Amino acid sequence: MLQQTWTSRCLMNFYAVVAASPTSWESHKIAERIEQRILNSNPVMEAFGNACTLRNNNSSRFGKFIQLQLNRAQQMVGAAVQTYLLEKTRVVCQAFSERNFHIFYQICKGASEDERLQWHLPEGAAFSWLPNPERSLEEDCFEVTREAMLHLGIDTPTQNNIFKVRRKAAPLTFGRDDGPLS
C-alpha cells in the first residue's frame, strides 16, 4: 500500500472513531462504509493516474483531495474525492525508459480474447504511445482495477465502454514527398 494511501486510511480511521458517537453503532458503520469506498477508489485512481518513471515504478502523476462530510453532530456522513491529473502530456510523450499510465498496460496485458475483439485491440499490437511494454510490474494487475471499479458502482458495460479503443480518422499529412495530400 502506498504511503499516501496508508496515511489517508489512518486519518479516516482516526476521525471515524473520534467523530462517531459512543452510543451510535450505525454512525460507526456508516463511517466504515465511507472509508471503504474511498479506499476502493485508490486502485482505480492509481491505474489511471500513476506511471512508471525513472525513479519510481508506481509514481503518482495526479493529486487527490479527500473531503470528509460531517453532520451537525460531527459524525461522518459522506465524503468527496477530488482528483486532478498533474501530467497530462504523459499520455502522448514519455521520457526514455519510462512508461505511460498503468491502465494502458493493464488493458493490453489483462484483456481476454473476447474483450480484445470488443475493444478493437488486436493481439500483440504495438502502440507508439506505450513504450517499454515488456516490463512487467506489480501495478499491471487489470483484475484489481476492474474489481475496484465494480465496488465503486462502475458496472461491466460501462467499463467496456471506457476501455474500448476509439477509432479516429487518419490525419491529413503535409510536407511529405510520397504523393498528394490525403
Automatic annotation (TrEMBL):
Residues 1-182 form the Myosin motor domain. Coiled coil: none annotated. It comes from Aotus nancymaae (Ma's night monkey). GO terms for biological process: actin filament organization. PROSITE patterns: MYOSIN_MOTOR. Belongs to the TRAFAC class myosin-kinesin ATPase superfamily. Myosin family. This is Myosin XIX. Pfam families: Myosin_head. The gene is MYO19. Keywords: Actin-binding, ATP-binding, Motor protein, Myosin, Nucleotide-binding. One of its GO terms (molecular function) is ATP binding. One of its GO terms (cellular component) is cytoplasm.
